[in-house]
Amino acid sequence: MNTPSLAFPAPAAATTFSTFLAETYKLASVRSTWWFLGGAAAVMLASTLSEPDDGDPTTVPAVTAAVHALLYYVQYILLALGVLVATSEFASRSITVTLACTPSRTRVLAAKTLVVGTTVFAVGTAIAALGVGVAGARFDELGTMGAQHAGQVVAMGLYLALLAVLGLGVGTLVRRTAGALAILVVLLLLVPELLGFAADRLSAPWLATFAEYTPSPAGWLLMSGRWEYAPVLAAWAAAAVGAGAWVLRARDV
Amino acid sequence: MIRLNRLTKRYADKTAVDGLTLELRPGTVTGFLGPNGAGKSTTMRLILGLDTPTGGSALVKGVPYAELRQPLRTIGALLDAKAVHPGRSGRDHLRAMALSQRIPLRRVEEVLELTGMTQAARRRAGTYSLGMSQRLGIAGALLGDPEILMLDEPVNGLDPDGVRWIRTLLRSLAEQGRTVLVSSHLMSEMEQTTDRLIVLGRGRLVADTTMAGLRAATGTTVRGPDLGPLAQTLTEATWSGPHELTVPGVPPSRVGELAHRLGVRLHGLEAVEPSLEESYMKLTAHSVEYAAEVATAPQENT
Q: At what angle do helices A75-92 and A31-50 cross, to 10 degrees?
């Protein structure tokens, strides 16, 4: 029997780093990624250019304007990016190729989490800085800003990154884009509203406190400089990715 | 190379693979044959660890697929040619695969060349025809220069040139000592390519044979003025004319002996070699999943 001729020397063993490189290449090699990132920046720019000055001299409206743009628009774009990193693989069935290349499903999801998290953190922080910068120039208050506001910009990037990872986890969990987005919109918009409404109606302030621990109110608090809410958001993201990993390991693809 | 041991996959309402035991040997092209729904693709998915078996095991070089260090170096598979992100170019699809295995990127250009996809490599995979997708899928299977190749219906969607190309490719890969498993639901595709045939029906092994073996089930046609006694003795005989009997599966020598013993006069005796297509149809007739069920299903919603 002939031994198969090798077309190239045997490479060193594939590692988690190889999986990370492959996932990074996959994210960068589809045009939609660039549309999402560019779109998020454009929306931030448009929103902060049109936000009115609130006229309150005690606040820094530039940061508020950026946070508004982020909570109303930008977060949903980057959330959808996170969702699609998972669901596009199931929609196109390319998940079978991904898992044939890297049979460890935990490793695949870990690499995706890392890629989505770092990319959205970097781009999200830049977008937040852009928004604060543009609004600050408009309201003529760039000179009054300091380290605290820089910290808020980083907090915005962190919030966006954790939210995108939350989207990735939910996307892995339910495998369908529409289903994942529906769940996330309910979680981000409806759940805090309902909890607030119930807190009022039932005179149960603990429900309002509970609402603060759901992602979007926690994100708002984090971006206001309350860093103690960072672990809350990290826990949401970790729970979603953990659940996604569990299902990915258990289910056939 | 690949060893299946009582491999079983059961879903809620059906058994896709039912206690399949077999071993694939290096240096051969094995044809995996069966009607649609016979369990060919499910078996391949189980080998790759994409689905978890309900029972039994599938080992690649002695270990489950998940334990292979660089799986693409050991086994290259094409399961579903369309399983590519439609927005990613063919070249980028292969590059991402190569990066995951630390395969040098120049190997991507080699397999693109080999499959005739260099021209189309820049285009997004969503724009590919089925034939081009198949070629990209084969390029992906060859990427790691693997010892084992597993291709699910690779001929689907290829033009006649492409079909000839893939036959030559499969033969040359086997001649290099590799193990090749290729599935099809069409007998004719297998005829010139395979050394060994594994026929599946309803998830079970129906036959493990060769082309010659499949053809060997020779029957007999016999003519004579009064064949009545012969027809009564040979239960499988059917009248194919007023003075002619056809006896499937019984060679002429045995029919002749029997006629002599019964004192039946013969005017003609000849062997009937069934076509491969016929032999295959006969083997799988009782296991064709849909034909029978559709015919007996009650009409609904009409």
A: 160
